[in-house]
Amino acid sequence: MAAETQYTANTGMANIATANANLDGTGTLGTVLTAASNGTLIKSITVKSLVTTTQGMIRLFIFDGTNTRLIKEIPVEANTKSSVNPAVQYKWNCDIKLKSGQVLKASTEKAESFNIIAEGLDWAYYGGAVRPESTNFTANTGTGLVSTANSNLDGTGTVVTVLTTGPSASGWKGCRIESLTIKGIVTTTAGMIRLYIYDGTNTRIFKEVMIPAITKSATQAAFECKVDVEGFQLKPDYLIKASTQNAESFHITVEGNDWKYPA
Predict the structure, then answer these.
(1) CATH top-level class for 136-260?
(2) How does pLDDT run across 202-243, given as a tens digit for each residue?
(3) Mean pLDDT of 63-67
(4) What pLDDT score does 129 carry?
(5) Helices and strands of the chain, counted as H and E runs
(6) Dihedral sign from CA coordinates of 64, 137, 250, 187
(7) If you write DSSP's letter for every residue of 113-134 in order, what string do you get?
(8) Residue 232 has what pLDDT?
(9) 3-state secondary structure 164-214
(10) Domain ranges of the chain
(11) Fold of 5-124
(12) Which residues make beta-bridge pairs with 166?
């Protein structure tokens, strides 16, 4: 961020208590936090039970205004709370950014009461002191669903757009890819997720991620992987796309930061 960046705390809170076994974003979800105009950095998410718990799962989603994508499952242990034994508590130090208007949502596998607290930071730029050479960042978090089998590595077949970088015509200089998460929402067999870069004409394979066989359940999280992209800098107007080897459903989330310079 530029030296003139100003931060405002954005602490999101929700209570969830309605059982929801779905991983596709349907069913009862609690709204935790909505991202601000430049985006919101979520530094951590705390899950705190209010009751005695049975073994289950807390699920976290990103809603982009149209689609709800699973990003994280947090296992919940069986625990009997008492005056000397605290109720279940987890903290996920996530450091993820949400794009403007995107919403963090949550659900619980079991009909047990949990508070979800998101530690967020909104940022803005102080116009009166922004130097021309200062870098202004805006969160660009893309999500997509891949579910159609495609064994091709040349970019043909069913390939889904996950993120589009800011357009050069609007002054964007590129997009720094901070993280890329693959989250299964079904039982998986051994296979592959493939990631591509599209330049407007050509689709080129960038990475392959091996998927193991995992039988998801109320107590077993579906496949999850955070791909090491090492702050990859992507050109304006380019796209990140994805495909799946097997006809199994995965949510892909790409956390990016578009940047430009003050006029």
Answers:
(1) mainly beta
(2) 999 999 999 999 999 999 999 999 998 989 999 999 999 999
(3) 96
(4) 54
(5) 0, 18
(6) negative
(7) -EEEEEEEEEEEE-GGG--TT-
(8) 96
(9) ECCCHHHCCCEEEEEEEEEEECCCECCEEEEEEEECCCCEEEEEEEEECCE
(10) 5-124, 136-260
(11) Jelly Rolls (2.60.120)
(12) none
